Amino acid sequence: MPFEATVLTLYPDMFPGFLGESLSGRALARGDWSLETVQIRDFATSKHRNVDDTPAGGGAGMVLRADILAAAIDSVAPDSRPRLLMSPRGRPLTQARVRELAAGEGVVVVCGRFEGVDQRVIDSRGLEEVSVGDYVLSGGEPAALVLLDAVVRVLPGVMGNPDSGMHESFENGLLEYPHYTRPQVFEGVEIPAVLVSGNHAAIGKWRHEEAVKLTSERRPDLLGRPAAVQPVTK
Ligand code: SAH
Questions:
Q1: Residues 143 and 226 reside in one and the same domain
Q2: Ligand 1 within 6 A of 112 CB?
Q3: Helix ranges (DSSP H) in the chain
């Protein structure tokens, strides 16, 4: 069964968006994964089909109504797919979680808007809150596209060279080593000699050392974290 993504949103036209291009777009066209959107507004009952209301307790902004969002979620046939809510309060998305999601049957993704969604829906429908970073977007749609991009690229057969994913940043708990390609000399700067030596053991060692150096400088927090996949030994 191909990986099935269902996205609940007030802006279905934002999908597939950039996922319709390049590798993910070709995989979508081939049927390696599927994407369905559910318009939350279709479940509004009032004359003007309002979906939001003022926050209980007062304060700025509006909140997505519990009854409408719950009806939209319940319209998706119950299955074993995880139900995610894109949310800045969620657990930050990691490559390890991306791998887990890609190994499953698919995802149901709820995109928030306004100040967010009524807490009772999060609780009663068992939504797992997922964040794409410590900043606030105006809606869950770009976050959902980011999550789906990361998941789809690791689905079997989507990436041109399956081996190329294994060395990537986060996969082995490290940021990736620096890359070089032609020309041999660029603005007077040469490619590091070891990379053109043909000595694969030395190249592997150099890359690992560079990855460790970069990671300890920029993201020391990653060093204690479990890897997304088993380290590739070559
Ligand atoms: N009032 C909320 C922010 C609401 S932003 C708060 O302070 O926590 C509106 C919607 O955008 C959210 O419901 C969520 O779906 C989405 N969103 C915003 N930032 C996000 C992030 N970093 N990761 C995932 N989704 C995000």
A1: no
A2: yes
A3: 22-30, 66-74, 95-103, 119-124, 140-153, 200-218
Is residue 172 predicted with pLDDT exceeding 70?
yes
Domain count, the chain: 2
173/79 same-domain check = no
159 against 69, higher pLDDT = 69
pTM of the complete model: 0.95
The stretch 8-23 carries a mean pLDDT of: 98
Rg of the chain over all Cα atoms, to the nearest angstrom: 22
Confidence at 230, pLDDT banded by 50, 70, 90 = low
| Mutation choice for ligand 1 from 73, 87, 110, 146, CB with most ligand atoms inside 8 A | 87
pLDDT higher at 186 or 159: 186
Say if ligand 1 is within 6 A of residue 116 CB.
yes
Residue 72 has pLDDT above 70, yes or no: yes
* 83, 84, 85, 86, best to mutate for ligand 1 pocket (most atoms within 8 Å of CB): 86
State yes or no: pLDDT of 187 exceeds 90.
Answer: yes
What is the number of the ligand 1 atom nearest to the C-alpha of 89?
A: 8
Spatial neighbors of 153 by CB under 8 A, at least 6 apart, are 23, 24, 159, 165
Q: Are residues 29 and 98 in the same domain?
A: yes
Smallest CA-to-CA distance from 35 within 70, 68, 8 is with 8
